[in-house]
Amino acid sequence: MSAETDTQTTTVYRVTGMTCGHCEDAVTSEISALPGVTSVKAVAASGEVTVVSAAPLADEDVRAAVDEAGYEFTGRA
Predict the structure, then answer these.
(1) Banded model confidence at residue 46, pLDDT cuts 50, 70, 90
(2) What confidence tens digit (pLDDT) does each residue in 9-42 have?
(3) Which of 14, 36, 47, 62 could make an S-S bridge to 74, C-beta 3.0–4.6 Å?
(4) 31 exposed, middle or buried (CB, 10 Å; 0-12, 13-18, 19+)?
């Protein structure tokens, strides 16, 4: 899912392997470091990560950030 406004894009990604708040923090930290990201909300229970950014992000960049955190990016929700 992706929604664009005049100034920001909100995209929901699927991430597997998150089981707790520490997992959510690790994913949030890595994705937050991507250029243009203004907000990240990871939810372990649903496996969804909602990202707000100044412009659409390349899936490869999000995948690399999730991999760096130690989890598996499975695509957009």
Answers:
(1) very high
(2) 999 999 999 999 999 999 999 999 999 999 999 9
(3) 14
(4) buried
Residue 57, Cα to own-chain centre: how many angstroms? 10
CA 24, 25, 28, 34 torsion-angle sign: negative
3-state secondary structure of 41: strand
- CB 21: neighbour CB atoms within 10 A? 10
Q: Are 28 and 42 in contact (CB under 8 A)?
A: yes
Contact 23, 44 (CB under 8 A): yes
Q: Is the pTM of this model over 0.85?
A: yes
Which residue type, as a one-letter code, is found at position 68? E
